[in-house]
Design brief:
By secondary structure, the protein is of the alpha/beta class. The protein has two domains: 2-85, Translation factors (Elongation Factor Tu (Ef-tu), domain 3, Beta Barrel), CATH 2.40.30; 96-256, Rossmann fold (3-Layer(aba) Sandwich). Helices cover 21% and strands 36% of the residues. It is built from six helices and 18 strands. It is globular. The chain binds flavin-adenine dinucleotide (FAD) and FE2/S2 (inorganic) cluster (FES). Flavin-adenine dinucleotide binds next to strand 5, strand 6 and helix 1.
Length: 257
């Protein structure tokens, strides 16, 4: 397993409050896996690997103290990286629809690139507004059919990415849908896939401490998101009574989403 202090070699602002940091990582990573990132003096948090290869990358959206500190790091600064962790996507043969909401595009993009056949992967990108749409050009290099939506209509179609995915499933045949985004998006995407009888895999998020299956802070209905996930099948997610309703806080208490 990779566990090192690494120097940031590249910093790219992808969108409003969304930044990619690239660093050397000598480890084999599968699309959909994540790393635990230690920001010296602040915290250690999970981040999907958004670029796979010798110059690996993470793409961070500022939501609180740790993500703000991470985003403010510059080229030449140092951060701790351990991993990769988690199962990653199961990329089957056949036609795939990748659906990413906001920074959920980070693990979705590595899936689209992992398929390596632009004719059998379509990508639906959604965000709250134009400034938060990320990786569109990159998606166009990996897929023949890339569509975008924004909640406020400032870019692409106006509406949710789930409505777009639902429309695409109605006119094209897909063998699997891969989804990552806010839990509410995942919840409605699961329903849309069920309505269209298309199997899906969803990447879930929970608060993580060890990242390695030991502490239990990420458990959802008895499954550890860090070790049994973060990617779960639609059938697994449907059986989760806590999905879309509850998460655990820092003290391990169940709080409403
Ligand atoms: C497997 C995995 C992969 C992730 N990949 C990415 C990524 O590629 N890019 C990215 O920007 N973020 C990603 N995240 C989310 C990221 O880890 C959290 O946003 C971060 O830990 C928040 O830390 P903070 O100190 O900035 O904010 P905090 O102050 O800790 O939290 C801000 C808000 O986010 C909520 N929150 C914090 N952590 C989580 C979590 N894990 N799940 C759900 N809600 C949470 C808090 O309850 C609070 O409402 C991922 C999370 C997981 C579990
Ligand atoms: S974060 Fe410790 S078990 Fe998942």
């Amino acid at each position: 397993m990779f566990s090192k202090a690494v120097k940031i070699e590249q910093r790219v602002e992808e969108g409003k409050g969304i930044t990619t940091l690239r660093f050397p990582m000598d480890a084999k990573v599968r699309p959909g896996q994540f790393v635990m990132v230690w920001i010296p003096g602040v915290d250690e948090i999970p981040m999907s690997v958004s670029f796979i290869g010798a110059l690996a990358g993470i793409t961070v959206k500022e939501v609180g103290e740790a993500t703000r500190a991470l985003s403010s790091l510059k080229e030449g600064d140092v951060l701790g990286v351990r991993g990769p962790y988690g199962n990653g996507w199961h990329l089957p043969p056949g036609r795939v629809l990748c659906v990413g909401g906001g920074v959920g595009m980070a693990p979705i993009m590595t899936a689209a690139e992992g398929i390596a056949d632009r004719t059998r992967v379509d990508v639906a990108i959604g965000a709250r507004n134009a400034g938060e749409i990320i990786f569109e050009e990159r998606a166009r290099r990996a897929s023949d059919d890339v569509r975008t939506t924004t909640d406020d209509g400032s870019y692409g179609l106006k509406g949710t990415v789930v409505a777009l995915a639902d429309q695409m499933m109605k006119v094209k045949r897909y063998d699997v849908v891969l989804g990552c985004g806010p839990e509410i998006m995942n919840r409605y995407l699961l329903k849309a896939c069920k309505d269209n009888s298309v199997p899906c895999q969803l990447s879930l998020e929970r608060l993580m401490k060890c990242g390695a299956g030991l502490c239990g802070s990420c458990v959802i209905d008895g499954l550890r998101v860090c070790a049994d996930g973060p990617v779960f099948t639609g059938e697994q997610v449907e059986r989760m009574t806590e999905f879309g309703r509850w998460k655990r806080d820092d003290a391990g208490l169940r709080v409403s989403l």
